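Supplementary notes (optional reading)

For those who missed the lab, this is the record we used. Protein: Lipoprotein. Length: 231 residues.
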Amino acid sequence: MLKTIKFMAACFLAILLLAACGTSGREANLTNGSGAGENQEEKNSTAKGDKVVEEENDTNAENDEKQSVDQEDASQKIRLFEMNLSYEVNKEKKEDTAFLRSSDNQDYSLYILPEFELTGEEPNKDVLYLKENDRHFMRIEILPSETDMDDSVSTIKEQLTAVNSEVTQLQVKHSKWLENAHIYQAEKDDEVVTAYLLKKDDQILKLTIFTTKELNYLDPFLKMAETIEKK
């Protein structure tokens, strides 16, 4: 009987020991599993952080590049105070330094040769004239952007008939900035009047040049007009 009790006690103790070992093993496994999970989360968190930093760096680089381009574009719009212009008067070639001048009457600037002067004639009209003889001059008009080109061409023709009923349409082959211009001319005795209607950049220009056959200043007026730019 005593042996039986000792045997059952030993078995019961063995069962308790096995149960204790199993619990410790499970706790150890749970602990190990939790640690691995935390390490993985830390790795994922670090990777996400690195990706965010890379994206921020890329965005900053793009912004810096855009800002640099904008600054370059702005610097390119700055006009120098002077520039050299080559031109002809009665087939005599000349070159002189032209100086930048802004219109007080309209939204543009241009380079003007020393022999000439710019003045406001009336609202939305300026006159650029030869100082020593104002018989030679160019009227400059900046037309509204919604201007109908066909109507303006008709107006030019009608205005030129005041000089001569015979109005001639001209074609320019060797001047790129005038290649799409509408050009008409009328003559009376020694007087020559030439009108130009064209789009230049985002402006519509109407130029009317008055000169003579004997001393023709058409070319220097056109060379100065070519430098017209919006302010």
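If you only remember one thing from this example: The first strand starts at residue 82 and ends at 89.
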